[in-house]
Amino acid sequence: MRDDSVQEEQGKKPAKDDVELPRLGWVGMLRWAWRQLTSMRTALFLLLLLAVAAVPGSLFPQRASNPSNVTQYLADHPASGPILDWFRLFDVYSSPWFAAIYLLLFTSLVGCVLPRAKIHAKAMRSAPPRTPKRLSRLAEYGTVEIPAGSGVDAEQAVRDAAAVLKSRRYRVDVRDLGTERPSVGAEIGFLKEVGNLVFHVSILGVLAAVAYSGLAGYSGQRVVVEGETFVNTLVGYDTFTPGAYFNSDRLSPYSVTLDKLAVKYDRESPGHYGQPIDFTATLTTKDGPDAGARQQVLKVNDPVSLGGTNIYLVGNGYAPVVTVKDGKGNVAFQGPVVAIPTDGAYTSLIVIKVPDSKPKQLGFVGFFLPTALVDDKGVSYGSDPDPFNPQLNLNAYTGDLGLDNGIPRNVYTLDTSKMKQINGRDLKAGGIVLAPGQSYKLPDGNGTISFDGIKRFAALDIRHDPGQGFVLVFAVLALAGLMSSLFLNRRRVWIRTGNHPDGRTMVEFGLLARGEDHRLAGEAAAISKALHAKWLVPLDPQVEDGNRTPANRSDAAAGVTMSSKDQ
Amino acid sequence: MPTINAGFALLSEQFMLMAGLAYVVAFCAYAWDLVTYSKTVRRGLAVDSAAGTVSADASRLVGVGASGASDSGAIGQDLGAGPLDRGVRPSSKTHSGSDGITAGDSMRYGKEKRRAARIAVAITVVAAVVHGLAVLFRGLAAGRVPWGNMYEFCTTGGFTVALIFLLVLTRRDLRFLGTFVIGLVLVMITAASVAFWTPAGHLVPALQSYWLIIHVSIAVMSSSLFTLTFAMSVLQLLQSRREASIASGKPDKALVMRLVPNALSLENMSYRINGIAFVGWTLTLMFGSIWAEKAWGRFWGWDTKEVWTFVIWVVYAGYLHARATRGWTGTRAAWLSIVGYLCVVFNFTIVNVYFSGLHSYAGVGS
Ligand code: HEM
Q: Which regions span the lipid bilayer (chain A) (predicted)?
């Protein structure tokens, strides 16, 4: 089918004509633009442009995948950041210019594929083209001489040849029967072009399915500490991203309790010591409020399916359990606090907010170390992800947490602008250092804090994506189309016969490939072999060799026998 | 989870060292072949042109059709069949195998024995076997497939490059690529051992999946094929420059390039290999998405590694298009093939080492 595309290009008027736009009028201009857009050159240009346009998304942080890095980048680059942002370089894949490129590309694709499909449908229904005058000019050419007295005349030979080709799955058309030179035309490989069309259409299908999956699905995150239960309702999520078609009664009210998160670290190979090798979460799940409880195991790479969603284990860490009593001796806070791991040793940031403490609110910031060691300056640091020597290091603040005025606050940061620090390494009171089971009395009668124990938490991603099955179907179709397009060959074969005055029946055949076809010689040899076998003619070794050059001896010799009678 | 076998790990490293040394010897042998070959060519040319002047009549009688070729300085090499347009693109018309003076454009083996090249291939086979053992024992030591970090991608990748090269050699005479391909394998295992070295160990949970076996092995195989076509595209560019300069009547300066088939044959061969590799890359992309869905809950998220895999795919799609676009065949298509390969290399090195993303388990730096 390469021929078609090139002919299309060649058939176009030279560029000079295209410049005379005014005379074309509006319709002409539109036609001209459409022709430009659907030309192979434009397709190629748009493809390369798409590749280039995708690159910045890997150079700059992207809001879609990493919003906090974008905020950081903007803070670090106050001058260039907003300019980059104006160009949507932090949202490359949802930017108008990226969309423009792929929409143009797909428009071009449609404009390219539809006419081709029409042409091809016609080609598939019409007979193979007429037999060329000189078969010896074709890319592959050969002859068979059926000896005199074999009882096969030219007409019979052509029918036999057609049968041979048919058994090789060619579409055949016998013509010129009853003339001096009967012949058969044959064609094979329509699936190549069909494959090409299927491929391109399926690419379009993939895009549509991806778009659908973005609209119809939803995803959310939730951090669950051991012992906690997540219920699949909107309030159950920490963050929730609905697609445009989302509607909250789609959520099936299942519940998931994290019973235990077991983590195993590599203690064996020196080069990977302390690297995690297994995360296993044991869950108790219920399909609904009244359904029976089930035990299920959730692992990385092995999501749990529940209520039309998939639940993925995407993160984990420690949640130290603390109790804070206020100045009056009342328990103002008790429970696990999720600490965000920052490195391979699970050095984790922790923020504790105690809005209920009286008379003033309390806040703590610090870090949790599963295995604390102390360096020569007296600073603790984490050295291992397993809790061999857990330690909580905190600074304490009193004052206003800023929670009461209704502004949403990130639970993992503490706004200390309206607070007074009462504990810290630089203060007289020093920092708070706690091992499990220990408690500490805050200065100035602000109460006590105690470190009661450790739990683990699991970060879960919950996703519903009705579109991804379609994506897969179209991708598989595209793959199949691609393979038939690349690996099948479209070929034409003609075989012409004639009766020689001395009684022999002369057969000549020629093959032509449409497009590149490195196996055409092999096909010629196979056809030659099959014809020889059909008429029990011993195979001439010269013909068997598929590597003949166009001007070699056997061609010339064969050319004499046939063409002398041809013309 | 099986325990790490330190003995096997050590054995693997020793094999790797031996393989490296053997590749060095093979590399030298390929280089030696190039040198002796261009000497042979020079001698052959001298004989030919002498014969050409003496028996010009005789050769015309025989109808050899090589008359006049000696004027242009490229006897026997079918350099005229340049890619003017697809109309002249051969289907399967191949030129004969090597005649000892010029490479056969069919890239089939000729009758001429090239001793140095034979030695080089023999040593490559030995080196590849030892390299294969190194990879095998690395896998046995860790009790899993040996492609879980940069060191292993590089060493296993180098092995597949060598293996695929040898496999192609059984069908076609691509020995002219020897210095290039084996040189690249050497670079890969050297880089692995010096820059990316990591002791044998278990995989982090995110990598413990059968998709690692499927996705990465296909990625490595496709990249190996892209490596071959990269080499061929570079040679194609050099060859077509040489062809142009010979056609304009300048003397043939790079006799070594007679060892290399004409530009059109190189282009066609690399197109075929690139077609296979592109299907492989499409599978890499698809399997990667399926794995991403299993591991991270979404099949596509424009993670840096995903971006670059996509970019590579689109560039090679562009390459395939270019071959069907007038004015873009030949040199421009070769450039696209080269750009595509540079993206592959970039994706593997720079992106793995310097770009952060979900795929950052390459085991470097930490
Ligand atoms: C999303 C964009 C596109 C992608 C990813 C893509 C990809 C490909 C690939 C991989 C091939 C080679 C496999 C084959 O021969 O079937 C191909 C071939 C082809 N494409 Fe596209 N294509 C795209 C858009 C287009 C557009 C817009 C056009 C038309 C203007 C087009 C026209 C063709 C044609 C005519 C061929 C056949 C070339 C041949 O016979 O070798 N494609 N395309």
A: 43-60, 97-115, 197-218, 469-488
